[in-house]
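Suppose a colleague, Dr. K., hands you the sequence of a protein chain of 250 amino acids and asks what its three-dimensional shape might be. Before reaching for any lab equipment, you can write down a predicted structure in token form. Begin with the sequence itself:
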Amino acid sequence: MTTTIAITGKGGSGKTTLTKGFLNLLKEYYPDKSILLFDNDLTSELGHSFGLDIRNTIYGIRSGKHEYKTGIPSRMTKQEYIEWALEDILVEIDENVDLIVSWLVASKDCRCPITQQINDAVLKLVSRYDFVIFDCEFDLKYLNQLVDIDIDLTIITTHATEESILLAKRLEEFNAKYAAGGQMGVVLNMVKGNETAHVYELLQRFNLETLGVIPYDNELQTNTVTRNSKVVTDAIRQFYFRLNLPQLRT
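The predicted structure, expressed as tokens, is then:
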């Protein structure tokens, strides 16, 4: 059974850094499990954090602009073709870890057959993995326009400022209809020691569930490309037990 994690928030809030933190921890906890990283952010920053400039996207399949690595097999149905094309654009990151990039997606109002065919093909692809981590655009709406999928855990990343927390509250309200049935909460990112009490006061005022806190990591300021941070991974380890995710048996 596939476990799905969606990481949302405004640009610059640390979504890609958090995605990589979860990746590192899941690889440590479950080294034999398969993981799909799903870049649903228009900046495609997740691929860049691995040193990759990925041009083959789900949008490329939809628009007919994808350049295939091999010749297109003959006698395929349209659905089989889309499923085959998704396989063609998967990028292997590591053993048991793949990456796929969506880029632009169509509106849910589009009634053309390919919209449903891509939805069905993505669902089939996702179901093959043990874990799928969606690095989302601002909220879950953009992901939902691509694929209608149940999300086990939705994280809203936010900085420790009143403005960011107000935005997180709006995101919680907006995401609710797309995350129905799954756990949703806020992860405070890049928190300095003197900010914690004030931020918790704001979170309580706006009735936001706090899943965890990630302290400020100076090294990320000089490691902005890879987005790898031991501080982030260790912080996730501290609040992992609160999450609607498979738990290690002790």
